[in-house]
Design goal:
The protein has 336 residues and is mainly alpha-helical. The chain is 55% helix and 7% strand. α1 links the parallel β1 and β2. Bound molecules: adenosine-5'-tetraphosphate (AQP).
Amino acid sequence: MGKQRVLSGVQPTGNLHLGNYLGAIRNWVEIQDRFENYFCVVDLHAITVPHDAKALAENSYAIAALYLACGIDLEHSNIFIQSHISAHAELTWLLNCITPINWLQGMIQFKEKAVKQGQNVGTGLLDYPVLMAADILLYDADKVPVGEDQKQHIELTRDLAIRMNDQFGKKKKPVLKMPEPMIRKDGARVMSLTDGTKKMSKSDPSELSRIELLDSPETIAKKIKKCKTDPARGLEFDNPERPECHNLLTLYSILSGQRKETVATECAEIGWGQFKPLLTETAVEALRPIQEKYAEVMDDRSYLESVLRQGRESAEAIASATLDRVKTAMGFSTPV
Ligand code: AQP
């Protein structure tokens, strides 16, 4: 039997932060040699909120370069840009036509982001989960490694696969493959530095709320210095009254590669004044190799372009076969 297939992606909506890295990309890197992997830069998702047309293409390249910098290995993985493969938009339309609209209106991410848009909520924002379902289902993905916040979207993807198979598949020959989410426990939900009850997010207006992968050591130091803490002495995990403390200790544990128990013992007696420099140094050291490799990749545009070209070719072959399968099942005529 061949390897199972993995599909995941990140939006080029801003600089990647520790949440994107620890919740998603780090896991892709760790599992990649066990799977056949497709990692895309989901630029069609990036336009579901107002975007800067002048920056979109360059941001997509930067995210692809960050994938490489974080350790995505082309021996096991393909990297491509979503909009380079038109099947994503086409399958979205086909899925739209079998998606009950109330399934989308209840999605948490839609509700959260719609509030931020005020009067100007685009149809694309409502349809975001269907596009995400198309991304996954096009590649017959077995596993989808994501952060906790995307769990509801994967459930919708599964519901849409069931609906398509029920309506248009044959008993022994489903049209679409059923994917499963892959969510790690540690780092699945990295919280904001300014509010330990909110997830770290690219769209938070305050830059102090997140550590970005390309932040300089000085910026990291400043953000950690200013991050929200509490007056208690001695640091601990899992105290619901101290969400910031849990979040910062978790970051320290993952970034330093130490077990939770070890960190709990090390930090049980110390105060914030001692902990913050420790976390700063650990974050700076963890991000240094990523930043160095990123600069190297961004310096060699023709290499990056060749990676994306190769990724597109491999992805396109799979995507167009799935799209044909769906169109045939739904009864479309073939061009003559
Ligand atoms: N705070 C987080 N903790 C753990 N995982 C996270 N992810 C995002 N934030 C956290 C995971 O990163 C992957 C890519 O996310 P995305 O950029 O495509 O969309 P997002 O989830 O909407 O990310 P952001 O940063 O929160 O962007 P905005 O602010 O634009 O919404 C996903 O696997 C996600 O789970």
